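Researcher: Re-running this chain for the archive, since the previous output was lost when a drive failed. Same request as before.
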Amino acid sequence: MSEHTEIDEGIISLRNESVPVTQVVVRDASLGYENLVVTEGLNFGISAGDYLCILGENGSGKSTLIKALLGLKSQIAGEIQWYGGLSGKDVGYLPQQTVVQRDFPASVREIVRSGCLASMGWRPFYNKAEKQLAEEKMQRLGISEFADRCYRELSGGQQQRVLLARALCAAKKMLLLDEPVTGLDPKAQNDLYELIEGLHQEGITIIMVSHDVGAALKYATHILHIGSQRQLFFGTKADYLQSDVGEGFIASQGGEQA
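Model: Regenerated structure tokens:
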């Protein structure tokens, strides 16, 4: 991994200023399916207020890592530790959207409210605070006017805003996004990126899997690169731009350094 990473008793420091609050640390993690290793040797940390973009080739284990962070899949080896009272259950998650999900027959309000389900336990009904939270998130993302409409009647960009509002109902301090702009037209992509950046500016930690190198170089504070042939990097965006891994990947994608 990058020499820029310093891990000392769970404290991650990648900046010259005061040490930020650590939220999650991954140490020597190997990930895969049924003991088939997809990626190994992952070492990185995420601090409050980071905007981490996860880059790499298809099949390198990016989405598998997201599932491991959420506790949906166990790592084959190594450890994932959460700090500050956070866990994967406290994180808002926007997964890759499938064709079936795009045709889901529920109202926008119902879908956004469902982001509160993880915190409800066995309670069968939403309480007043949860209903209010859903209304606030719809207002924040500019979809209140669609609240009573059927989700499947919306455009792709509108649907992603709905799913992001749902994720925000679950999020306390962090959002995990897996290819959030896939299938959207350029304007909808830009609008969603700007929404996500606005949430980051409000203090939410962002972890985003992306194939969009340009967006990563524009918005990210840190880059985690998971590549083939054990090409791994973790560090600041500036350091990634100067690394052999970063230079090679950007060139292969037809991009230029920012």
